[in-house]
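Pipeline run #58 for the internal structure catalog. This entry was flagged by the ingest filter as a single-chain record with no existing model, so it goes straight to prediction. Upstream metadata was stripped on purpose; only the residue string is passed forward. Reviewer on rotation: M.T. Logging verbosity set to normal.
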Amino acid sequence: MAPKIYTRKGDDGSTGLLYGGRVGKDSAGPDAYGAVDEAVSVLGQARAEAERGSELDELIVRLQRELFVVGAELATAPGNRAKLEPGVSRVTEEMVSALEPVIDDLTARYEAPTEFVLPGENRVAAALDVARAVVRRAERNAVAAARDGWLPDSQVLPYLNRLADLVYTLARWQEGTFRPVRTDHRT
């Protein structure tokens, strides 16, 4: 018999944390990991539009898995951070730095926009632009969590910052060309 999805423990507005403890669902940590969960989902939308087994598909799967590490760290109370495992439930400097060569490689494959672009040249790029916006929100929420003391000595903020840059790069790569915000190119 499968366990029930509902527990009723959160009916009071609280949520359980990884490694124990409960906090309000609107606390800084849950707010941030909720946005990370959304980022995983919208990356899934982009992946659903990508060709199965393609370079993009495989890269998105990697990023989704890494976001579970981010979420685990954000779902851990500051007092339980010693229980976090690097690369499993704690973001590492290596995870952050590993995103940079991917950004560099992809950026070399297309002509970089010189101004803001309008998303929507194709379905994959549009989904990636939504994912980028959600990752940026997750980053802002993680900044708030860090200010609340939720993320001492953490690589979550650099990871999310770099990830948003990568997802932007993925969208531009998938577009190949871009549509500028302005109709005339005068300054």
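catalog note: The beta strands are 14-16, 22-24.
catalog note: The chain has a mean pLDDT of 92.
status: ready for reviewer M.T.
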